[in-house]
Amino acid sequence: MSISSEVYTEVSPTREVNEDFVLVGQDFVIVLDGATPVAGLENGCIHDVPWLVRQLGLRLAEGITAPDNADLASILERAIEQVCDAHADTCDLDDPNSPSSTVALLRVRGGRADYLTLADSFVVFRMADGSIRQITDDRLDHLDDYSVAAFGAARNTPDGFWVASTVPEAARHAVTGSIDLGSQQVRSIAVLTDGAATLVERHGRTWDQLLDILDIGPEELVRRTREADEVAATGFHGKRHDDATAVLCRLVGSV
Q1: End-to-end CA, the chain
Q2: CB 49 within 8 A of CB 99
Q3: How far apart are CA 207 and CA 225, in angstroms?
Q4: Cα–Cα distance for residue pair 176/168, rounded to 1 Å
Q5: Which of 30, 84, 130, 189 matches a 20 to 30 Å C-alpha distance to 100?
Q6: Which is it for strands 244-252 and 2-10: parallel, antiparallel or unpaired?
Q7: Which of 18, 17, 112, 37 has its CA nearest to residue 71?
Q8: Any idea of the CA torsion for 45, 193, 176, 25, to the nearest 10 degrees?
Q9: Within its chain, how far is the Cα of 239 from the centroid?
Q10: Quick check: helix, strand or coil at residue 135?
């Protein structure tokens, strides 16, 4: 069994560089959402966020396509270690504001669909019976203080949240699981950055409604998201617009 994927990624209307990263294959999806740095804030790193997500994404691809069938958390932990090694000599990896990224992974192999999310990206399964299984790591939604200082202090700590940056252990705190495709019929799978999920997260749509739009195509989902974000007056903290990446996957072949 493999997957057929439709992909669309788009930079925020207010920025010039897309800090998301997406890579798909016949049996995997990798989606990363790099955290936009605070203007003027020192982070101890000579590299920008696109460098981080590109380096992390390529190392994740090496791990997720390897024949040893390692679990996704171990693959992510190893990828973070490798990226740390790549700039340990030039950058301060102890800086709490080092470039970082969310992670969403999907792998279909051996009759199972394995998934992982770290921080606020999404893997969403629509089952044949119409039910929805929405997977995300929502710890970012439960912070008491979103100031720059408090956010940095809470990053990659047990009482805060975990994200892919300079602490490989963060991978052990990802939300992971697996669906047996032989016993459960999956209609489609969505892998989304939070910028492509705001119709639900910010604008009151249901996951059913979002997935109906995604069925038209990932580009249509992002277009409607941009429209909704533009006219929204309230209901969110943080930036109005974000980079948006959406992947629609359908299973091909038999278990």
Answers
A1: 6
A2: yes
A3: 13
A4: 16
A5: 189
A6: antiparallel
A7: 112
A8: -90
A9: 18
A10: strand
